[in-house]
Please model this.
Amino acid sequence: MPTALITGITGQDGQYLAEHLHGEGYRVVGLMTGQHNPRSETVAADLPYVELVPGDLADLASLIAALEYTQPDEVYNLGAISFVALSFKQPELTANITGLGVLRLLEAIRLVGGVDNPIRFYQASSSEMFGKVRETPQNELTPLHPRSPYGSAKVFGHHTTVNYRESYGLFACSGILFNHESPRRGLEFVTRKVTNAVARIKLGLQDEVALGNLDAKRDWGFAGDYVRAMHLMLRQPEPDDYVIATGTTHAVRDFVQLAFAAAGIDDWERYVRIDPRFFRPAEVDLLVGDASKAERVLGWTPQMSFEELVTSMVTSDIEIERRKLK
Ligand code: F7E
Model:
């Protein structure tokens, strides 16, 4: 039975990836940070087959111990400070976890794996690295121009991954994933913030939602589709980097409109207030990815459309909020 170690097991992608790998017959181990992390109970309830091992991306020795205990065939680094807005408030923490954390994990793999290192490594790189985009659509060769401490930390992690592949022959892949959402998305991200608010407005529990820049454009896909691509990358004969995206882009405003419409509310502007607190010091205006390499080499294509994604998130949030009322 192959073994996978996942950092970021409590996040949206960690959960979908654990389900996917479990379905593929893997032993799945999740790295869990902190002393009595309350999220470990959620993992135990939702993903009972996942084994948890203590460790922290800020602590090299703990990563070595986790690898020695787990003896993984594959390591997926999904752990990060992943909220761009928070990265502006805590840039040093972001650099340490999202950036240096990659270096620590790669060092741990290098030290534990020895010569002819059998461990395959996946790094969660991000379309935020393209930032102030130099070309459209963005592909694996598009120059990087990050616009946030998060984006800068991801650039460091990305280059470090490529560097370990080239320096030590490590089987290290970097998936440059564009925004990917689901009913499991954290409430701090705009999509889930909106679908949760729509559900609460629909049920009369909330009057309005305060948002920032509605003009930003994102290439939004479904997280469940994107974790399949992570696994496919590590199953190739050679390690490489891949853009994972849908190839279509929508403004935040379009997402908002569609989410309200999915709940049967057409006059969405009545319920949205613009609040400057949600604007960022520097914005990424437009992202749209070219995933043709992933399609060609991995045979990967996204399955869920934008409309299906928005509707599924709204439906799920109405269900969640209804259940709370009972
Ligand atoms: O913002 C605008 C905001 O926080 C999307 C992360 O997974 O994807 C994600 O990063 C857009 C931005 O995601 C609000 O200004 C307007 O333009 O949902 P988001 P993100 O920053 O694109 C990439 C690929 C990652 O790697 C990241 O880890 O929406 N926006 N009003 C707002 N955003 C938020 N969060 N809240 C608002 O009220």
